[in-house]
Amino acid sequence: MYIVGLHNDEDSGVCLLKDGKILDIINEERLTRKKLQSGFPEKSLNYILRKNRLSIKKIDYFAYGWHSKKNNQSQYHYISKLIGRLSECNLKNPKILDLIFERIKVEFSRDTATFEKFFNSLKKFNIPLEKVRFFDHHQSHAWSAFAPSPFDKALVFTMDARGDLKSASVSIAEKSKGLKELENNLSLDSLGFLYGQITYFLGFKPHRHEGKVTGLAAFGDPKKTLHIFKNLINWNGKRIISNLGYFRPFFTNLNPKLKNDLKKFSREDIAAGLQYHCENVVSKYIKYWIKKLQKKNIKNICLAGGLFANVKINQKINEIKGIKNIFVFPHMGDGGLTVGAACNLNFELTKKSKIKLGHVYYGQNFSDREIVRVLKKFKKKLLFKKLKNIEGAVVDELIDNKVVGFFQGRMEFGPRALGSRSILFHAKDKSANDWLNKKLKRTEFMPFAPVTPIELANKCYENWNKKNSCTPFMTQTFKCKKDFILKHPAVVHIDGTARPQVIDSKINKVYYNVINKYCNITGNKALINTSFNQHEEPIVCSPNDAIKSLLSKNVDVLAIEKFIVKRNE
């Protein structure tokens, strides 16, 4: 049985399941070269069909992780919840009622337009509507977190700006029973909108540059601005609730009074207050549900939704007393809805709630013949040779202080480069964060992330253990040990934390061999691993993308499969 998961909003993409097994996952941006590409994922769908020698007729079902409000039961639930929320508001103030209806109007109009585009694309591809199943946005996020997690039983939390009129949800999931949503938050009370609008206020792009704000927060004093964020949106003892009016649930339409209040403070102090407040609110939310369900003795937590791209928040969750382990779906944003919707449908059809996700290398790969064909197009500009020992050659280049573009095997999916399309450099140079980011035309505040062999990880990161489910996918920060901080300054944040990828040979053998050999020879315990792309570009996908990056001098050397490639200078 073939199930295709589809997503056609921002960061659109496709996932293919065969009998409950992942065959392929890819996001449209990698093929169109447009960051967070929205719209129907035509190139991705065509690629997956062609690669697997399938036609539309051979696909049994298509799963779409949005627009569940077309379902009457979902509509009634929302109306009931909205009435309850209205009863809490000061409706004598007409501006509050106008704000609520403005939010509802925007959501319905945008979702209707997105659905119409989706429906028209179905007709273009001759996909019968009866083969399509629609699932709730946050339920799809929840399934993406639980189904591939290593847990048979977990509490599942989702948080983002909004989706199907919600901004958060909590569910209980069991292997034999599937997933049941217990509660949700309306988009009127959205931490995702809060983080996005402060991102916008600070001069960045919301829904794209929130990570910059997280990095900026390390340089500020949260105490100076915390009172503002507490007054915007907070935990009331049972749920997250906003001060509607002062808080406006949009990315860019901020209350003028809020703007004036924020202008009194530095960018760093604003970012610090926002980050600290969000960490506290999310922690209280999760602690509340752990305590409420303590009789069920659930110690594992699954997370998905764009807010959990925030690795500092994930660290705080992992440190909550009573939590044994957390799993953050590697593509926690909307680009991961394809997997969640497909897993949801797979459970409905087969009652099997789990899928295997030992890695994220489900994208394109390229043969030596394909690579040589592209290399020859640039033969006047390049020098290249095929090697028997590519690992040794890469290590030699790294020891020689070269910036290496590392292109090996199937491309990873998700926002993190995890060794298939990575840039590698040594972690000893504290200034690398400045000059390498300038080289890549990036404006980042956080140092680069480290990649460490699994055998050395407990010597680098406090409270790390082999059962950690986040470090293979770089979705959580850890406090670093003193010796690691001293010897690897390029990958340690100002607060002494790092966002590591811990790699073993089972996940990615060639990548592991390079990291492990480098560490054995040098005595170091990590390398810089950053994404192989320039600022505002998707991570490279094809040999052509990688070669263009080399010629643009983003990297000194390209290691592409068994080939070492350099500029002919």
Task: State the main characteristics.
eight-stranded mixed β-sheet, alpha/beta, globular, DHBP synthase, Nucleotidyltransferase, domain 5
Summing up helix and strand content along with how strands pair, one would put the structural category as: alpha/beta
Query: Which oligomeric form is depicted?
Result: single chain
| Number of separate helices | 18
Spatial sequence of strands, sheet with the most strands: 13-22-21-14-15-20-16-19
Q: Estimate percent helicity.
A: 25-40%
Average pLDDT score: 95
Tell how many strands the DSSP assignment holds.
22
- Form type: globular
N- to C-terminal separation? 53 Å
**Range of strand content:** 15-25%
What name does CATH use for the topology of one domain? DHBP synthase
Question: How large, in whole angstroms, is the Cα Rg?
Answer: 23 Å
Low-pLDDT segments: none
Description:
There is one protein chain. The mean pLDDT is 95. A hairpin with a 2-residue loop joins strand 6 and strand 7. The longest helix is centred in the N-terminal third of the chain and has 31 residues. The chain is of the alpha/beta class. The strands form five sheets. Strands 13-22-21-14-15-20-16-19 form an eight-stranded mixed β-sheet, sandwiched between helices. A five-stranded mixed β-sheet has the order 3-2-1-4-5, sandwiched between helices. The protein has a five-stranded mixed β-sheet with strand order 8-7-6-11-12, with helices on both faces.
